[in-house]
Hints:
Blueprint: H1 6-20, H2 28-55, H3 69-72, H4 77-103, H5 109-126, H6 141-162, H7 170-190, H8 192-195, H9 202-206, H10 208-233, H11 238-259, H12 268-288
Amino acid sequence: xxxxxxxxxxxxxxxxxxxxxxxxxxxxxxxxxxxxxxxxxxxxxxxxxxxxxxxxxxxxxxxxxxxxxxxxxxxxxxxxxxxxxxxxxxxxxxxxxxxxxxxxxxxxxxxxxxxxxxxxxxxxxxxxxxxxxxxxxxxxxxxxxxxxxxxxxxxxxxxxxxxxxxxxxxxxxxxxxxxxxxxxxxxxxxxxxxxxxxxxxxxxxxxxxxxxxxxxxxxxxxxxxxxxxxxxxxxxxxxxxxxxxxxxxxxxxxxxxxxxxxxxxxxxxxxxxxxxxxxxxxxxxxxxx
Length: 289
């Protein structure tokens, strides 16, 4: 399940929900089902990613980072396929429950729209490395991560909670999306040597030095967008606390990415995940206190 990455998916959805709570009453069970749906989708993505990498020979070719279940022999291909089928079912159950609890029905315009979006999210989760033409193997992973880990959870979490769309939430959605792409970029920089044998990633297209520059732009631009949103919408100083407290961590992360060799980059991945989670949680709470 790659548990250390799960706070990344909850960062965006929690921020969207908390932004909606500023002017709307959101039942606890809607919050719970929305978060469970999001976490389930990321688990599905992680499992599908592992199966796809295993089938394509990406894992096991000198890949850095923690050993995965199929690579180590803990799970067989059939067992992983069964786990993926179960997670698809879990995503559907939680997703329909979220829609039903929030809107009172699934067969309504909002519900049907979310069903379509949920179907796209399941497809995206499964086809990063799976299928005949996995988009993660063609250098398109950054685009989909930006959408489904940034814009969709923040704006979608707001919509499910408030029953309306606030287009300004696209700004923090883009910020979380950029940080999420940064997580993927760290992973891809770490695995450039093994990835070169089977796939195309942005670091392989750019080269290592330009990948470092690209990473710095992602983090800096994400932080600037979040700061701009808070500056435009906050009525006090509390929402700025999350930004002030996490800024040193983002700076330390960027310095670590530039300083560490590729085979030592793995700790930078959970660091960026948890920093983004903390920033989302603290900023969101700043609006509610």
